[in-house]
Design the sequence.
């Protein structure tokens, strides 16, 4: 099953979630219906125009994403880190206190471009930690080769101490995550491979 013929990602539809081509039905919605016990026939009866092939494409897409995703348990290891300028000082200091080698764009080279941040992470062999989602987009859209890792924190900006604790847990569970783009959420860490280049 070639899911690419039937599944599209368009930022104008459901904020860029993967959907069945020609619909506003998200892949995750179809998979959730199946997980809730809906039969293929019930889905087809309730969503006219949807085909068996569309449902199979949703499952093939989900399978492809799961095959490329890594989920890391919490662990401990020292890591070389480049903290983006938006990363809070308390989290930077907490990582340093935990024994990690952290440089911080805010104090070392404020205002540099995204490309310069990525070049610095590459040159120094550091994992980039950031709250800026643009780095993921840059790595995937421009296909920036990434021998380092990127950890995106997608968390509510609650207290600085809570963010510091989450930063330590995430960095220690992922290590340098070379070649991976990881997303840290409140209850999990997901990772997918970064592109290897043009």
Sequence:
């Amino acid at each position: 099953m070639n899911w690419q013929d039937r599944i599209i990602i368009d930022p104008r539809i459901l904020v860029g979630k993967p959907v069945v081509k020609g619909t506003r039905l998200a892949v995750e919605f179809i998979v959730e219906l199946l997980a809730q016990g809906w039969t293929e026939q019930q889905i087809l009866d309730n969503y006219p125009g949807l085909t068996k092939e569309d449902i199979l494409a949703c499952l093939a897409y989900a399978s492809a994403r799961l095959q490329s995703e890594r989920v890391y348990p919490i662990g401990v290891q020292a890591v070389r880190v480049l903290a983006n300028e938006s990363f809070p000082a308390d989290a930077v200091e907490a990582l340093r206190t935990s024994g990690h080698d952290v440089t911080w764009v805010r104090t070392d080279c404020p205002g540099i471009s995204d490309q310069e941040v990525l070049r610095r992470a590459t040159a120094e062999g550091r994992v980039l930690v950031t709250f800026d989602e643009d780095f993921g987009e840059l790595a995937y859209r421009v296909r920036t080769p990434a021998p380092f890792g990127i950890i995106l924190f997608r968390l509510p900006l609650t207290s600085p101490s809570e963010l510091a604790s989450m930063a330590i847990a995430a960095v220690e569970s992922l290590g340098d995550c070379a070649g991976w783009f990881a997303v840290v959420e409140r209850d999990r860490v997901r990772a997918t491979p970064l592109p290897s280049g043009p």
Observations:
- The two ends are 26 Å apart (CA to CA).
- The CA atoms of residues 117 and 128 lie 8 Å apart.
- Helices lie at 27-35, 40-46, 52-68, 89-97, 105-108, 114-124, 134-141, 160-174.
